[in-house]
Each structure stands twice: as structure tokens, then as C-alpha cells.
Amino acid sequence: MSINPHLDVVTAFVSELAQLGVKHVCISPGSRSTPLTISFARHGECKTWTLLDERSAAFFALGLARSSGEPVVLVCTSGTAAANYLPAVVEARYSRVPLIVLTADRPTELRNVGTNQTIEQVGLYGAHVKWSIEMPTPDGAKELLAHARSTAARSVAIALSTPKGPVHINWPFREPLLPPYEVQDEVNTQLPKGLHIESGQRQLTASRLEYLAKMLTSIENGLFVVGPQFQQELAAPLLEVATRLQFPVLADPLSQMRAVSEEVDLTCVVDRYDTLLRHSDLMQGEIWDKLKPDVVIRLGQAPTSKVLGAYLSKLDDVRQIVVDESDEWRDPLFRASELWLTDPVILFSELKELLPQRETSLFAQHWLSLNDSIEKRQVFEVEHIEEQYVGEDLPHLFEGRIFTELARVLPLDARLFVGNSMPVRDVDSFFPKMHKSLFMLANRGASGIDGIVSSALGACAGTSRKTVLVIGDVSFYHDLNGLLIAKQYQLDLTIILVHNDGGGIFSFLPQATQEDVFPYFETPHGLEFQSVIEMYGGSYHQVHTWSDFEVKMNAAMENHGLQVLELRTVRALNVEMHRKIFSACRDVLL
Ligand code: TPP
Q1: In testing the pocket of ligand 1, which one of 56, 84, 421 has its CB within 8 Å of the most ligand atoms?
Q2: In angstroms, what is the span from residue 554 Cα to ligand 1's centroid?
Q3: What percent of the residues of the chain are helix, what percent strand, and what percent coil, each to the nearest 5?
Q4: Which residues form the Thiamine pyrophosphate enzyme TPP-binding domain (predicted)?
Q5: Fold topology of 397-569
Q6: What are the 10-residue block averages of pLDDT along the chain, 590 residues in total?
Q7: Which residues on neighbouring strands pair with residue 494, listed in sequence order?
Q8: Max Cα–Cα distance, the chain, nearest Å
Q9: What does CATH list as the number for 206-365?
Q10: Which residue, judged by its Cα, is nearest atom 26 of ligand 1?
């Protein structure tokens, strides 16, 4: 037995994680976590990321795990270090991202007795983790090696089982944590390694599938609504089913069904529902009847568009089916009449083989031709709205146009990360459906404006694909710390910073009319970000026109490192432009 028992147990744990294919570990500095840090650093099979700020580290791990679909490990010391993981753990829980959170702790005898840097860590993340366990304090007992291996395997299995999500393992370590010692041979030789985990997705039986295929074929007017979901492979089978059935698909930009490869049929995709449905006063009489479905089939998280949510709520006499791989209740509208608890990729891949091609559908034509007319009008308005402000001494780039421009200039297979607040709403309203495969990401599990820079850096860390983040200035400010990761690891992230000096979204809300209290919401800060960006080794460019934007974006796609393109906009003007564009599109409905 070694003099110091920690490393044997932790090494057994770490080597089991590596055997099971864990590739990335994000380590923040601290003394109590020394056995974990040494073990990961020396083991050599996992890529280690040294990240100073635990809050940012956890969001980075989240971005990395979401974009790869594989579990990422976090390691930190005891105390508030562990508490700083909470926001990202919450996001991971609600957006189903696999994280393995390892927090170091003092042994039980040193808790609740006034010991320094010791807080209640057992169960720290509450219901926001799928599983949590406290390890026994390593004491040299050989059985703990087997337990450590088994726990590592179990943490991977649970993080990856449906629905994916975070797990927490609290590690008590008794001093001395050092000096360094040799790992005993028996850790590597005498125990079973690499537990094989056989697991499957939920699947329906052949007879149920046949029944559903018949049932779907008998529906005249069906409508798909696909909210945020991050399986790119769902687009092809689902859109094929939609084409066969002639069911329109209202596709959230985060559904991965707006920007797809050439071979995927986009005919049924409706991308302008947010503009169409916001005119709820016109949604009655003839238009309402023409667009009203007999059945709605919903997938993914709740759609980004508020007006789409309101529309679905209004369809309270319509049969609504929720398809989900897990039995978490994805029905915030309480309108579901059926739940199909099955893996959507498998379901639609199998269904498409069973469905005949429907010739035409008047219902689909109504949706798609209206979508077409709105799109034409909206594209025209977006291109011309700024002309109304020429001559005014204000920056007047229209924030929504970022996404029509990006649709053109983003290279094939790029990743587009959108910040919460207006970026995610603008991508919904203005990003067109197109044949160019892109991966669209955002933190929509809990929709925080924190940690977005770090999450986007995590998303670009695991790939050679170009990654672009669109973010508001308040969200950018919130996560300035995250920029260090770009400098440390020379990550190629291009950030489009929409600087309207405050929370622009609040100017759209009724709070904007309450002048005395509005400053509590809009929070202008007067910050200039150039020097901070440069401090982190980034290059900063202001953009003044759209041709300038294109030139700088193209250059950014060629260059390396952190690049920030800043657009200065004016909150009040931005609201006015959005309203003018939406109201011009209203004419299409009259
Ligand atoms: N704090 C967190 C952590 N998350 C939140 N979602 C909020 C507060 C509430 N919130 C939503 S949007 C927003 C705030 C404070 C303003 C964001 O401003 P900015 O990032 O500049 O984007 P803009 O509204 O200008 O598009």
C-alpha cells in the first residue's frame, strides 16, 4: 500500500473514465483537489484544460459537451469554487448536456466544525444533477479501488443515459494530500477495467409504428413544431416524413432544420412563423381557418418564439402530440393530448419507410405560400429599413440584419452560437431556411445571459469548424473572464458584439413605458470594450456598414484567434426598426 492512499483510488477512477472514452477534463486550481489534478495530468489520455475561473470553466465544459455530445469532466477545489459551477450545471440539466462534476472536499470529521473553505457540498446542486454521490475518504482499503472504477463507469453511464445531463461526485480527501507517491501496480493490473456499457434508445415496436404510420396518413392537416434540439441527424428523416405527409414544419433556428445540407428537402419548412403569428388580431376568420391544423406534433425544447407559444396555446381544441426521447414533461403549455416517448431520430427514420407520398395539401400550400410572401416582404424591408435613418447622426445598423448577412457569409459547416436576449430572437425572426449545413447553438435550457462567451469557446474547442458567436453587450460584459480561455488556448472564435449599451430587449417590453423605473431594466454602462479585448489577445474591429461587415467577416473566417466585430446600435431605434418591419409584413396578411 502507498503511504498516501489518495492517488491509487483517484487513478483507478481516472483510468476508468479514460477507458470509457472521456476525452476532456477542465481543471481549476486549488489544493484540496490535488489528487484529482495530479491524476488527470499524469494519466495523459484525457485532454486537460486549465481554467482559472470555475464559473467560466463550467460553461466552457458545457459548450464542449453540447457540441460533441460526449461527457466532459470538471475538477475543482472545495468551497465556493464548487458553488461557482452551479449556473452551468443548471443549464446542463435543462438542456440535457452530459457533465461529470468532481468537487474536492474535506473529510467528514472536518465539516460543520468551523474548518476553513468548507461548505455543504453534498447535494450542492440539488435537483439540477441526475445523480450525486459522496465518495468514501480514501484510507488504503483495496476495495475502494473497485468502488472508484465502478463509480466512474456509473457516472458516464448516467450522464449519457436519456435524458443526458450532469452528475456530481464529491471527493473527500484527508491530509496529507502530498508528497507525491507512486501509484501501486495493483491499481492498473488486478481489477477489471473499462466496464462495458450496453444501452439503447427508446424505440416503438413494429406494430405500434405501423399503427402510427396509418394514423398519420389519415390526418389531413398536420403541423410539426420543432423547438431547440441539438441532434443534427434529426433533420433529414423528420423533413422527409413531413414532405411525404405534406405537413408544414415550423422550425426554430435551434431545431437544426433551417440550415441543412443539399440532400435534405426544405420545402415544408416554415421559417417566418414568428413574423406571421405576431399579428394575432389578424389570426381569425378565414386566415385562422386556413392555417388551423387538425393535429400538431411537437418536438424539442419550448420554441424560442413567444408568439408561436401563444399560438399553440390558442389551439386548445386541437390534438397535440409531444415526441420526446425522455419522460421529462416537455409540455409547458399543458396542451399535450399524447406523449410519444421514443427516440425521435429512430422514430422518423423508421416512419419514413412506412409512409406513402401524399400528392398535395391545400393546408400546406396555405402555410407555405404565406411564408413565402412574408419572407419576400421581410427581406425587402430589412434591406431598406436603414435608408429611413440616413442623415441622422446616430449609428443605425439594424440588429436583425446580422442574421441575414451571416446566412450569406458563414462558411459551410460553421457553428453559430447565439446569445440570449435579442440575438436568439433575431435569429428566429430573420435567419432564412437554406441549403448550407450549419450547427446552431445557444444556452436555452435556463436561458441565462451568463457564461455565453465561455460556452461558445467550449463549442469551438472541440472542432476545427469555424465558430461565430453573436452576443449583446450586457451578456458579453457578464462573461469577460471567459475570454482568457481564447488567449490561453489560441481558440479561433469570432464574436459579433452587438453593443447597444444596455439590455436592448427591455426596450421592447412594457417596462419601457415606465420612465421612472426603466433604468433598473435597461442598465446602460458606458463601457468601451476594445482595450479589454486586446488585453486578452483578441483583435477588435468596429463595423459601420454591411459591406464593411462582409469584408471583416470574410477576413475573420480566414484569420486565427479571438476576433471581435463590434456593431454599435441604438436601443430605441432598434425597437422602432423591428416594429416598422413587422408592421410592413402585416400588409401581406390583409
Ligand atoms: N441575469 C442572467 C444571468 N440571465 C438573465 N436572463 C437575466 C439576468 C435577465 N436578462 C435577460 S436579457 C437581459 C437580462 C439582464 C439583457 C441582456 O442584454 P444584452 O446582452 O446586451 O442583449 P440585448 O438585450 O441588448 O440584445
Answers
A1: 421
A2: 29
A3: 45, 15, 40
A4: 453-566
A5: Rossmann fold (3.40.50)
A6: 74 94 97 95 93 98 96 98 98 98 96 91 97 94 91 97 97 86 64 82 94 97 98 97 98 98 97 95 91 98 97 96 95 95 97 95 97 97 93 84 98 97 98 98 97 98 93 98 97 98 95 91 96 98 96 97 97 96 92
A7: 468, 563
A8: 82
A9: 3.40.50.1220
A10: 422
**Amino acid at residue number 323:** V
CA distance 44 to 180: 17
The DSSP annotation for 180-199 comes to: --PPPHHHHHSS--S-----
Class (C level, CATH) for 5-189: alpha beta
Residue 369 C-alpha cell reads as 405560400
Query: Nearest C-alpha to atom 17 of ligand 1 is from which residue?
Result: 503
| ipTM of the complex model | 0.99
Full-model pTM? 0.96
User: Is residue 216 within 8 Å of residue 242, measured between CB atoms?
Assistant: no
Measuring from each residue's beta carbon to the nearest atom of ligand 1, which residues come in under 6 Å? 420-422, 447-450, 472-475, 500, 503-505
Alpha carbons 148 and 13: distance in angstroms, whole number: 5
Atom of ligand 1 nearest to the CA of 477: 20
Phi, psi of 21 (to 5 degrees): 95, 10
Only one residue has cell 396509418, namely 214
- Bridge pairing between strands 269-270 and 249-251: parallel
Q: Which atom of ligand 1 is nearest to the CA of 450?
A: 3
> What is the atom index within ligand 1 of the atom nearest the CA of 502?
21
The residues with which 25 forms a beta bridge, in sequence order, are: 48, 73
Spacing, Cα 65 to ligand 1 middle (Å): 24
Q: Residues of CATH 3.40.50.970 domain(s) within the chain? A: 5-189, 397-569
- Whole-number Å distance, alpha carbon 503 to ligand 1 midpoint, is 6
CATH 3.40.50.1220 residue window(s) in the chain: 206-365
The atom of ligand 1 lying closest to the CA of 521 is 15
CB atoms within 10 A of CB 192: 11
Residue 319 to residue 289: CA distance in whole angstroms = 16
- Nearest residue (by CA) to ligand 1, atom 18, is 503
How far is the centre of ligand 1, averaged over its atoms, from the C-alpha of 135 (Å)? Answer: 38
- Distance from Cα 522 to the centre of ligand 1, integer Å: 9
Closest CA to 247 of 358, 337, 401: 358
Q: How many CB atoms lie within 10 A of CB 311?
A: 21
Mutating to test ligand 1, I would choose from 399, 476, 500, 505 the residue with most ligand atoms within 8 A of its C-beta, which is 505
Q: How many angstroms separate the alpha carbon of residue 90 from the centre of ligand 1?
A: 17
What 3-state DSSP class applies to 254? helix
